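Review form for a predicted model. The reviewer records the input and the model, then writes brief findings.
Reviewer: anonymous (R2)
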Amino acid sequence: MTPHFDQLVAEAESVSVDGWEFSWLDGRATEQRPSWGYQRLLGERLAGAGAALDIQTGGGEVLAGAGPLPPLMVATESWPPNVDKATRLLHPKGAVVVSDPDEPPLPFGDEAFDLVSSRHPVTVWWDEIARVLRPGGRYFSQQVGPASVFELVEYFLGPQPQEVRRGRHPDDAVAAAAAAGLEVVDLRSEKLRTEFHDIGAVIYFLRKVIWMVPGFTVHQYRDRLRELHERIEREGPFVANTARFLIEARKPGR
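Model under review:
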């Protein structure tokens, strides 16, 4: 068993985690997708926009696949490898990629965009979103909900306090949007199933989604990883529940 474990670990440690697509996990992990189809809905909104901003675009994969982009399309990203990847992917489609630290203020003037979007933002600066939206403009986002994949998180970190488990609750997003002067016009949430079929998939996921187990390294968690590898070999895939919610908010006016 040890050589198999070591081989999976070495492979998952060496693969690049740049960008925001997960094709390396094909056949190794599965994640149930929300029923609403974020990318398709984003494409419908981009088709009606004159100026749009995609915040925390990652490697630009979701935006690039959403369909034709509006005449003015800007994307922001903070991680340098992703900035480079998004630039190569989005520039040929007419989008400008701006390196931004994901902290306020956004590097744009007031009322610059009629659509602001973001898929799985780490943080949401609601006041800044409201500032850069034109009257009548909309913020459209799919976000990670509370206690998402916490079966995996708590396997490594132990039981988390209730305030941590409740983080990213849709109700809090609605309240924050209202406090920024935005009106929520759509809110949907779903609990979904995620399966990890080998320990390499777990390592890759935790290396890529760095906020799940902060500071994760194979060296630090090697014993727990070996135990989980043996459990998967013995019992089958490790199952976790994923939380997602869709929120759309409108800036009053027009």
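Findings: The mean pLDDT is 95.
Further findings: The radius of gyration is 19 Å.
Recommendation: see findings above.
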